[in-house]
Amino acid sequence: MNETQEKIVERISEKYKAIGQDPNTHLEGLVWANPITYWDYILPDALLSLQVQRTTQPDEMVFIMYHQINELLFKMILWEINQVSNAKEVSAEFFTEKLTRVSRYFDMLSSSFTIMGDGMQKEQYMKFRNTLTPASGFQSAQYRLIEFASTELINLIDFRFRATIDRNTPYEHAFEHLYWQAAGKDHATGKKNTLLVNFEKRYKAEFLLKMEGYNTTNLYTKFKQLPAEVKSNLQLQNAMRHYDYTVNVTWVMAHYHAAAKYLGNAEATGGSDWRKYMLPKYQRRIFFPSLWTKDELDNWGENNLESYAILTKPI
Known about the structure:
Elements: H1 3-18, H2 23-32, H3 38-42, H4 44-47, H5 60-85, H6 92-111, H7 113-117, H8 122-128, H9 141-150, H10 171-175, H11 194-213, H12 219-224, H13 228-231, H14 234-263, H15 274-278, H16 280-283, H17 294-298, H18 306-311
Helix pairs in contact: 1-2, 5-6, 5-9, 6-14, 9-11
C-alpha cells in the first residue's frame, strides 16, 4: 500500500469511528459490493415505467412526459431555493448563483412549451383531454411550494384581499385567499369545485406547514435581511428581477398561449376560467415588489417590461 492509499484508509477509518462504526466492517463490505452502473444510479428503467396512458391517442404520451419533465425541473428549482432558505449566512455571490440556476430552469420551462404547442395534434388532444377531467396542471403541488419558497405570503394573496391580511393573519385564513383559489371557486357562491376540493384534500395540510416554514426563510425575506451593501449588489438584484419576471410573466404567458392554441374558448379540464386565472395582470403575483418601480408594478405583465427583463438577465 502506497502513501496515498494509506491516507485514504486513514480518512475512511476516521469517518466511521466518528459515527461509532467499525471501519473494518465497512472496508470489507467494499470487497463484496457490485460496481455502480448508470442504470443502477439513474434508474432509467423505473423512470421510464411511469408513463401510463389513459387513451389510445399517441400524442397523449407527449403530454404525460412533458408534465413529468416539468415536475423534475420543479424539484431541481426547490432544491436550489432551499439551499438559500436553509443557509445561516448568505453572500451576494451565493444568492446570485442559486437564483441564476433557478432562472435557467424556468427559462427552459418557458421555451419548452413549443414541445406541446407544436408537438401534439389538436384533434388527438381534444379526444384524450376529456378523460383527464377533473385533473389539471393547476394541481402541481411543487409549483405551489416554489411560490411559498420564493416570496412573502402577502404577495401570493388575491390582490383584492391583500389590504385585509398581514403577518398576524392565521395561515388557514390566508390559504383561503391565495390568488389561485379564485380558479376553483364559484364567483357567486364561493363554493369550491372538484378540482380544488381534491387538491386540498391531498395537499392542504402540507401546504399549511410549508407556508409557516417559509414565512421567515423565503427568498424575499432572506434578501431583505441581508446587509445594505449586499442588497445593493446589482448582479443580485438583476438575478432576482429576471427570476421574478421569468416565473410570473414569461413562463405564465408561454403556458397561456399554448393553452389558447388548443382550448380556444373552452374551459380547462379542471373547470377553471383559465384565461382570467393565468394572465399576470389579473394575478398581480410579484415575488420581489421592492425591486420594481411604481410604473413597472402598475404595468405588470405588459410588453413594455419584457425588454428590461432581457437586459437584466443574469450571465
